[in-house]
């Protein structure tokens, strides 16, 4: 293990980012709280249940002393925010006494996928999705709250072979989940600087270095592929499994994307109008800062190589299917249409990306639809 501590300058001691590396398996970097070579007495929790958790984003820190941790660096980043009520912290122990419960719901028509989310809403309010495969289950994304009922249900359907997390806003309590289910957590190496807990055993985190990675269990592919699109964060991921694209907010599903023109007064006679987007591509979702055309083109360069019939966003029921809502185009085409709408709307009327087309890709290992 190596530790970088504050460096001295001619004007006195100046705090620099503190980085702890453990055999290159993970990096813990805290840009705001510098403890020197060792944390102050009383700052490290005797139990992980007492580690502080940001109430706004759900991130868990390796600190229990509220006098030491006064702000959340995840929420201080321009991609996130501190709410009008200010910065507050809690713990898993407090949440477990607070009446929270995790709910579950299978995807419509496909019980291989089960959404799990917390009520009442905590943090960002995202869901995670359990993907059941014949060789082992994969958890897509992570939520903060983990209770005995959730643990029991997941174990009853075979436990977890792996966890894959889209981006740092959903890192939450992933080490709690990994230790509970004794499984690896797949993260993008580009985003490792946003880790806020040390993997002391050095065996839970696995970093994805490539644009695509098949998730494996005991050397066998599970049929779940991580796709690194970037954008929101440099390492932002999607996951492709059984022809379904799990997007978190790497792609942001818009209200128009969820709209259904076959209901209401149209009663099945109205089609989805042309020129409407289904997705947006954002550097900051809550602060509404869009991605550049170059970033969007880079995302499509990864995505266009794969086929999918639905997308499943960050929140429960945010699901878009081929042919749904009065649309006569497939979901993949709707992704490209949305990208090109955003590029044109930003003033890039002649951008080369507008010439991209959506053609079916026939790969040697075609995803099962």
From TrEMBL:
Alphabetical list of Gene3D superfamilies matching this protein: Ribonuclease Z/Hydroxyacylglutathione hydrolase-like
Species of origin: Coleophoma crateriformis
Protein name as catalogued: Metallo-beta-lactamase domain-containing protein
PANTHER family linked: METALLO-BETA-LACTAMASE FAMILY PROTEIN (AFU_ORTHOLOGUE AFUA_5G12770) (PTHR36839)
InterPro entries in the record: RibonucZ/Hydroxyglut_hydro
């Amino acid at each position: 293990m190596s530790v970088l501590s504050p460096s001295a300058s001619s004007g006195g001691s100046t705090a620099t980012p503190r980085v702890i590396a453990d055999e290159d398996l993970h990096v813990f970097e805290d840009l705001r709280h510098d403890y020197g070579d060792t944390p102050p007495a009383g700052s490290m929790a005797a139990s992980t249940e007492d580690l502080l958790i940001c109430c706004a984003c759900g991130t868990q820190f390796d600190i229990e002393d509220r006098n030491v941790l006064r702000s959340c660096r995840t929420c201080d980043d321009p991609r996130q925010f501190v709410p009008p009520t200010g910065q507050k912290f809690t713990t898993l122990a407090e949440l477990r006494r607070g009446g929270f419960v995790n709910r579950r719901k299978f995807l419509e028509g496909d019980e291989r996928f089960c959404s799990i989310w917390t009520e009442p809403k905590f943090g960002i309010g995202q869901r995670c999705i359990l993907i059941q495969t014949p060789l082992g289950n994969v958890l897509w994304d992570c939520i903060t709250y983990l209770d005995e009922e959730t643990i029991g249900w997941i174990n009853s359907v075979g436990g977890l072979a792996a966890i894959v997390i889209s981006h740092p806003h959903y890192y939450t309590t992933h080490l709690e989940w990994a230790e509970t289910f004794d499984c690896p957590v797949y993260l993008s190496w580009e985003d490792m600087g946003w880790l806020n807990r040390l993997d002391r055993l050095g065996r839970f985190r696995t970093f994805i270095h490539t644009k695509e990675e098949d998730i494996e269990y005991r050397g066998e592919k599970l049929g779940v592929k991580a796709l690194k699109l970037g954008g929101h964060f440099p390492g932002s991921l999607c996951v492709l499994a059984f022809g379904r694209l799990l997007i978190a907010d790497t792609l942001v599903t818009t209200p128009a994307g969820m709209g259904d023109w076959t209901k209401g007064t149209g009663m099945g006679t109205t089609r989805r109008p042309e020129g409407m987007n289904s997705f947006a591509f954002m550097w900051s979702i809550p602060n509404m800062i869009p991605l550049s055309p170059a970033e969007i083109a880079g995302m499509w360069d990864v995505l266009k190589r794969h086929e999918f019939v639905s997308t499943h966003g960050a929140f429960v029921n945010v699901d878009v299917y081929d042919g749904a809502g009065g649309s006569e185009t497939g979901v993949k085409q709707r992704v490209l249409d949305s990208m090109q709408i955003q590029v044109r709307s930003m003033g890039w009327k002649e951008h080369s990306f507008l010439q991209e087309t959506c053609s079916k890709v026939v790969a040697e290992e075609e995803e099962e639809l």
